[in-house]
Write a structure and sequence with these properties.
mainly alpha
């Protein structure tokens, strides 16, 4: 493999401070983003929510968080292009760290929803800004490896979140997440701004104009394509994994804990990100690799819902393969960063993953509507097949960007 044959200079670039700090930032981001899915049941029980209302209240809270991510994606994306990538890395982590600390003090579901909304706004900035900074800091030949490293390290935050949630009560788990974010904030002092961004800033060109993503068909088409190829990823995370205890119950499997389902799925997701990242470098194509992983997602979604699992360990194996199938998350965000010029790159790379996270809102409504006339497994399969079909179609709308030079601008003429 190419990575094993790198010289010391290339390895030094790959493991540079921007890459390491972006990876650690995404690690904390994933911890905080998924903590709600892990502690949903114990936290809602402590507020007096009945088991019969657990699914409905959980959907309400995850919608609040995802709407925050959707709004935050626009805010931080624009700021990243106007003020710089570092401004987002500092501002977003401060907001979601403080929100998560306060989240440990809530006593009602509405307070919980408000804090998940605010935390969602903060969480929206981390990945897009980190991937943009890494993409612009590394040479073309290392770009795919760098973004894969960021995502793979970051996704392990789900493992820590599950361990902390098992060791401490849900309030302390939120306190720890907020504290980790504040500690990480200090490490970012040593990170330097993207050289490509600084050159564009000196030129005084229009930067971070969100409307530019919509005022030309070629840009709008690419923007929508970038978003929709990721639809299966957050269908899996936001529905199949978040509500895994309910799915397990429908299958007649006892003992399934949401935290373990999240952990095993994210171990699979990290493995998938490594595999898809290296595969895209080997075949020199982002699009071909994503096509294969969307196809794998369809296979593993169907198996998760209809494989005759007998035990919780078998069910968790299904969660692992679900994560493996949608393990093109890093590739998905890298593609978004590579599709657009420097003056729109942060806007695109930050809004795209958060728009797709926000897709959980209509997907949960669709899921809830179908559950009224179908069982939970049938409803989930229909929603899942819908996301796969949309993703295959959207793949045709984007450019192949494997070897693209990122030092260019988006212009309207």
């Amino acid at each position: 493999m190419e990575i094993l044959n790198m010289d010391s200079r290339s390895l030094k670039q790959l493991f540079s401070i921007p890459v390491i700090v972006a990876a650690l930032g995404y690690f904390v981001d994933i911890y905080d983003l998924l903590l709600f899915s892990i502690v949903r049941i114990p936290s809602l029980r402590s507020m007096g929510v009945a088991d019969s209302e657990m699914l409905a209240q959980g959907e309400y809270l995850i919608r609040a968080q995802m709407i925050g991510l959707l709004l935050g994606g626009i805010i931080w994306g624009i700021m990243g292009d106007k003020r710089g990538r570092l401004s987002v890395l500092f501002g977003s982590i401060l907001l979601y760290s403080l929100a998560n600390i306060v989240n440990g003090l809530v006593t009602t579901v509405d307070q919980y929803a408000l804090l998940r909304f605010i935390a969602g706004i903060g969480l929206a900035g981390e990945l897009g800004a980190g991937i943009t900074l890494v993409s612009e800091s590394l040479p073309t030949r290392l770009r795919g490896y760098g973004t894969t490293l960021v995502a793979t390290v970051g996704l392990m935050g789900a493992v820590l979140a599950n361990y902390v949630a098992k060791t401490f009560d849900w309030q302390m788990a939120y306190f720890i997440g907020g504290g980790l974010g504040l500690i990480l904030l200090v490490t970012r002092i040593s990170v330097f701004e993207s050289g490509i961004f600084l050159k564009v800033k000196e030129q005084g060109v229009d930067r971070g104009n969100f409307l530019q993503l919509f005022n030309r068909w070629d840009r709008f088409k690419k923007f929508m394509g970038c978003i929709l190829i990721g639809l299966p990823i957050w269908y899996v995370i936001g529905i199949l994994i978040t509500f895994s205890p309910e799915f397990a119950k429908a299958m007649g499997i006892a003992g399934v804990v949401a935290g373990d389902a999240v952990m095993y799925s994210y171990i699979g997701l990290a493995a998938g990100d490594l595999l898809s990242g290296f595969a895209s470098q080997a075949v020199r194509s982002r699009k071909k690799t994503v096509f294969v992983f969307i196809l794998l997602s369809l296979v593993f979604i169907t198996a998760y819902l209809y494989w005759p699992f007998q035990t919780s360990s078998g069910f968790y194996t299904g969660c692992f393969f679900l994560g493996l199938g949608v393990g093109y998350w890093a590739l998905f965000v890298t593609i978004a960063a590579e599709q657009f010029g420097t003056n729109l790159r942060s806007t695109a790379a930050t809004t795209v993953p958060n728009f797709i996270r926000g897709s959980v809102v209509p997907l949960t409504f669709m899921f809830g509507y179908l559950r009224a006339s179908l069982n939970i497994l049938q409803a989930a399969l229909i929603v899942g097949v819908f996301t796969i079909m949309i993703a295959f179609w959207a793949l045709r709308l984007i450019d192949e960007t494997f070897s693209r030079d990122l030092n260019y601008l988006e212009k309207d003429h």
